[in-house]
Amino acid sequence: MPLVVPGIQSKDNSSSEDWSNKLMGKKLGDAHDNMTFAKQDLPKEHRVVKPDSMSTMDFKPERLNIHVAEDGTVTNVKYG
């Protein structure tokens, strides 16, 4: 079984830094433009974490966690 290091690599060979570069400062939407990233292009294993929302503390190295601000702008991206 291959070793998967969270934040370094994932199943699709994208690191959280790669996703951070793609998503930081953008909003999630239906289509791409200068300020929006299309939701359908996110990895299968992902979740969007809104401020003050509850989420489980289970650790899944292949899951991309996308933290957004009140206005929906991406503020943090990490695997786990």
From TrEMBL:
This is Proteinase inhibitor I78. InterPro entries: Prot_inh_I78 (IPR021719). Residues 1-20 are annotated as: Disordered. It holds the Pfam family Inhibitor_I78. Gene3D superfamilies: Trypsin Inhibitor V, subunit A.
